[in-house]
Amino acid sequence: MPVLCVADWLTQGAPPPPPFAILRLDVDYREPHAVRLAEIAAQHGLRGSFYFRHRGGAFPLAAMRAVQALGHEVGYHYEALDACAGDWQRAQRLFLAHVAQLRAAGLRVQTVAAHGGPPRAATYRRNDDLLRRTPTLLAQAGLLGDAALQMDFARVYYLSDAGWRWRFYARYTPEVTGTPTPLRAWLAAGLEREHGLYVNVHPHQWFVGAWRARYFRVRNRIGRVVLGQLPFRPRGA
Q1: Closest Cα to residue 6, out of 165, 192, 187, 200?
Q2: Residues 6+ apart with CB under 8 A from 220
Q3: pLDDT at 210
Q4: Is-contact 147 6, C-beta < 8 A?
Q5: Which regions of 28-166 does DSSP assign to beta strands (E)?
Q6: Nearest to 158, CA basis, from 148, 144, 145, 143
Q7: Which of 61, 121, 122, 162 has an alpha carbon 20 to 30 Å from 72's alpha carbon atom?
């Protein structure tokens, strides 16, 4: 079964017939996990799209270069509206500046993917609203597209491990929560023969030992409950 990165999909004149898969990895943090998964994928002849965040005042350039050197696509996991507390003009400038910064560092950024999370202002719902409202930013930045906004989800089933649980979407939209599904059972059903398969993996959730994954999964859920009880405060407040 052919495995494509997002840029491969967006540059093809026509989608391949099923079965095929698109492999996307959102690197929220724990960048060494992403490098290790990139190594494993490369050993099996697979190529995916790895999207990295700008956090702590910098991009993890060493990890990004290592992943690119293995033959994978490296992209920008943007959250400009979050970082600018919903200021649209600042967010647009920051988005363009970050793409330029990555290219100046030798990274061949062709596509981007929005980072999820609760909004930090009432002026937007999600980070991808930036490109929904100002799609000309893609052309300004010389990008092929967004990993979700330019995807035809009528042609692919979406499978994601976001939130530390695999969920299946027969036709993905961000407003709908997918169906929880054991990965082995889903693959055994062979649904990828009907449509392509779009797999979204979050490397920070994957560990060598199962007990480590369980520990961080519980800690993550407790943290989400606690944060959900706190009043909204924009960054810098």
Answers
A1: 200
A2: 164
A3: 57
A4: yes
A5: 49-52, 73-78, 111-114, 145-146, 156-160
A6: 148
A7: 162
**Alpha-carbon 84 to chain mean position:** 20
Measure the CA dihedral 67/204/53/13, to 10°.
Answer: 60
Q: What is the pLDDT of residue 229?
A: 43
pLDDT of residue 31: 96
d(CA 59, CA 229) in angstroms, rounded, equals: 30
pTM over 0.70: yes
Check residues 192 and 161 and name the one with the higher pLDDT: 161
Query: CA 138, CA 16: separation in Å to the nearest integer?
Result: 25
Give the domain extent around 129. 3-229
pLDDT > 90 in the chain, percent: 69
pLDDT at 225 over 80: no
- CATH number of the domain to which 115 belongs: 3.20.20.370
Within a domain: 112:
yes
User: Does residue 224 form part of some domain?
Assistant: yes
Number of domains in the chain: 1
